[in-house]
Amino acid sequence: MTHPGNEDPAQRLIAEYRALPADSDRKREIIAELDDNAAAQPFLVSVLADAGEYDLARVECATVLRLWPPADPGLRHRAGRALLAALNDPEEDLVCQYAAMALGPYASDDPAVAEALIAAGESEEDPLVRACARSALKEAGLA
């Protein structure tokens, strides 16, 4: 039995996150506090994958997942696919840019990620997404 105050700090932060208003900047701060916590990675992937989530929280998730890709192959695949979906989100330019930047560590694991990064790196639509994708391709050794 967990006593109040003895709960896992990540679970406490996740509960706080879920209780916040949709556009609270505290959400971004909480994601940053969870940065290298492997137990929080499924939560980070779920926030990133939710197009209705606060955009700056999703940007922070992309950054964290770039710096600390999940070690678990299944979660790593889901993280790569969440980043891929964020890359293709036409409503959120900033989320797209950070997703493109974060995809490097996932490109060698998933051919769909590599293909999407290559396409984004050649796209004429958004020069910032293109630059981020090219940087990720270099990081992945594909450029």
Q: Can you summarize this structure?
A:
By secondary structure, the protein is mainly alpha-helical. It contains 9 helices and no strands.
Explain the layout of strands and helices.
Layout: H1 9-19, H2 26-33, H3 41-49, H4 55-67, H5 73-87, H6 93-102, H7 104-107, H8 111-122, H9 127-139
Helix pairs in contact: 1-2, 2-4, 3-4, 3-5, 4-6, 5-6, 6-9, 8-9
Task: Note the main attributes of this structure.
143 residues; mainly alpha
Walk me through the structure.
- By secondary structure, the protein is an all-alpha fold.
- It has nine helices and no strands.
Number of strands: 0
Uncertain regions: pLDDT < 50 for 5+ in a row?
none
The largest pleated sheet is described as:
none
Give the end-to-end Cα distance, rounded to a whole number of Å.
Answer: 52 Å
